[in-house]
Amino acid sequence: MRVYLPVTLDELQDTAPVLLAPRPAHAVTAALRSAWAEEEEEGWEYAAQASAADGSLVLLAGRPAAPRLRVVVAADVPDACVTAPSTTTVPSAVEVVCGVALEQVASIHVDEPEAVPDVAAAADGDEEALERLEERDLLWYDVTEVLDIPRG
User: Fold this and answer.
1) Tally of domains within the chain
2) Around Cβ 93, how many Cβ atoms within 10 Å?
């Protein structure tokens, strides 16, 4: 199953980049398909990725030393590693209960460095900065480029 994991750049660029579990993530779920019934697969994937980007902001709020960029990892994990969270109102929300190794990562999506001021402000609760971020697309990186991603 393809999942979209909210992470922080320092976590991803660690010397042993295994994303530990359990951790919240997002995916194209039945609930997401039902909520956006008129959408197609690409739209559902974009919605799941956008929800993961919001989750990255939540992580940044609790990690003040992390680079101020939203980071989403798209990874392919076994279906058995994905469970429904106990409580949520987000239709794409899932929980990944297995660690995610670098070889499972399909791509990495990161804000461009120019977004740092808005990411920092949004992580601190600035609603206007959050609205500006909603207009920004994340940049795509191949897994082989993980150490080359600018830190802002």
Assistant:
1) 1
2) 21
Helix (H) or strand (E) holding 141: strand 139-141
Task: Give the residue from 88, 18, 90, 10 showing the smallest Cα distance to 48.
Answer: 90
Predicted TM-score of the model (pTM): 0.92
Domain that holds residue 98: 2-144
Residue 49 pLDDT > 80 = yes
pLDDT at 15 over 60: no
Amino acid type, 104: Q
Decide if 35 contacts 58 (C-beta within 8 A): no
Residue 113 is assigned to a structural domain of this protein: yes
Please state whether the peptide bond connecting residue 22 to the residue before it is cis, i.e. omega within 30 degrees of 0: yes
* 52 within some domain: yes
* pLDDT, tens digit, 9 for 90 and up, residues 73-104: 999 999 999 998 877 789 999 999 998 988 89
Residue 54, in any domain of the structure:
yes
CA separation for the pair 142, 98 (Å, rounded) = 22
89 belongs to a structural domain: yes
